Amino acid sequence: MRRVTLTQYLVEQQRTKGVVSAELRLLIEVVARACKSISHAISKGALAGILGGAGTDNVQGEAQKKLDVIANEVLLEANEWGGYLAAMASEEMDDPQQIPNRFPKGEFLLTYDPLDGSSNIDVNVSVGTIFSVLRCPEGVTNPDEKAFLQPGSKQVAAGFAVYGPSTILVLTIGNGVVGFTLDRDLGSWVMTEPKIEIPGDTQEFAINMSNMRNWPAPVKRYIDECLAGKTGPRGKDFNMRWVASMVADVYRILSRGGVFMYPTDAKHVEGRLRLLYEANPMSFIVEQAGGAAINGLQRIMDVQPTKLHQRQGVILGSKNEVELIGRYYAENKQ
Ligand code: F6P
């Protein structure tokens, strides 16, 4: 069987379909290469002395892990010299990072969460990297926060890596969703899922049940009905999964369907997840795979961001279920 690598896939998308430019192709390849180094570092774990806290807090006031800081540095260094970026923004940096003057500047903006699910690092559970690519607004030469405040519908590419039993890269360039597995012997990303599609229906949901007392009424209604099982209004039993790494939960949904929810609630009034480098890239991927992504009343990718590190309620996954939850929100508002 012919094995298609990430490079071959991107060259083909550039040459025959015209969906990526040479600059965007380079950007994606460099990010994917950085994910390989992060995967390598994570796999060494305690042997390399990289587990545990870094002793610092990020802009959100969350304690940074050593690997959060390492992964952020790997992505920064990998992406500053290529000439395709105008600036980058990360969960781990207060402000956008400008491209040093010694390097040429390009047309794209990159946002990323270098290590998603980092509370799972020290317990050897899957973590990942999420990224999103936007175009730098025309005429902007030194992009500040404002340049990044674009709705998710403007993304030109998005992807995520999962550092799990195997290392997986999921990618969309707006032409469906493809998946690659890292072949450590060859050092390359090999396409293992040429067309990822989320089943429209599901019997599985993912939510942190410890927040139940804080949930809004539509979420409580939906989960209550799932829990009622065969004899309840849904007429079927549901299963629950919660890895607490969005990358792993979303990858499961891409593989076999399901709904992932981190809604706004009485404790997380603005939501828990970040819009620009978590909710938007995941929404782009999920929609490209035939699923849906809303914050309750609105499609996530239509939300106009007002802050770089803005949070957002997230409900995404199998289309029919997400639409049902959306209807519960709409009815609740009436
Ligand atoms: O960065 C956010 C994150 O780690 C996600 O990957 C995950 O889905 C969520 O937080 C887990 O939140 P909680 O710890 O509340 O279950």
Describe the 3D structure:
By secondary structure, this protein is α+β, with helices and mostly antiparallel strands. It has two domains: 6-193, Fructose-1,6-Bisphosphatase, subunit A, domain 1 (Fructose-1,6-Bisphosphatase, Chain A, domain 1, 2-Layer Sandwich), CATH 3.30.540; 204-333, D-Maltodextrin-Binding Protein, domain 2, CATH 3.40.190. 31% of the residues lie in helices and 24% in strands. It contains eight helices and 17 strands. The protein starts with 5 loop residues before the first helix and ends with a helix.
List keywords for this structure.
single chain; alpha+beta; 2 domains; 8-stranded mixed beta sheet; 8 helices; 17 strands; binds 6-O-phosphono-beta-D-fructofuranose
Q: Spatial order of the strands in the main sheet?
A: 4-3-5-6-7-8-9-10
What is the mean predicted local confidence, pLDDT?
95
> Got a strand count?
17
- The run of helices and strands is HHEEHEEEEHEEEEEHEHEEHEEEH
Bound molecules: 6-O-phosphono-beta-D-fructofuranose
User: What is the C-level CATH assignment of the largest domain?
Assistant: Alpha Beta
- The appropriate CATH architecture of the largest domain is 2-Layer Sandwich
Count of distinct structural domains: 2
Amount of beta strand:
15-25%
Report the radius of gyration as a whole number of Å: 19 Å
Please count the helical segments: 8
Instruction: Please identify which CATH superfamily of the largest domain we are dealing with.
Output: Fructose-1,6-Bisphosphatase, subunit A, domain 1
Helix content: 25-40%
**Terminal Cα span:** 56 Å
What is the SS-derived class? Answer: alpha+beta
Overall shape: globular
Low-confidence stretches: none
Q: Main sheet, how many strands, which sense, barrel?
A: 8 strands, mixed
CATH topology of the largest domain: Fructose-1,6-Bisphosphatase, Chain A, domain 1
